[in-house]
Fold this sequence. Notes:
Layout: H1 3-25, H2 29-54, H3 58-88
Helix pairs in contact: 1-2, 2-3
Amino acid sequence: MEPIVVYSLVLSAVLFTMGMLAVLVRRNPIIMFMGIELMLNAANLAFIAFSRHLDKLDGQVIALIFMAVAAAEVAIGLAIIVSIYRYRRDVDVDAVNSLRG
Length: 101
């Protein structure tokens, strides 16, 4: 394997771990969304690294689709957070459970 591919995969693993820790440790939904975005970008980097290693464009196409899904996820997630903040004046993740209808 080329050294650039190995470095990209190591960076991808580090970014994914940081995102996972942000989601698991923090209770702020904005930080949690940032962690999810970090994990998605780490997966994109891994897809692109494998795409370069295999000399195929499939990984780059999948990464492009993931970026579109991530943009939609952020738009919807931030809209939900804003609506919860308008309703409760607090965005505590543990307290959102009480909004069940």
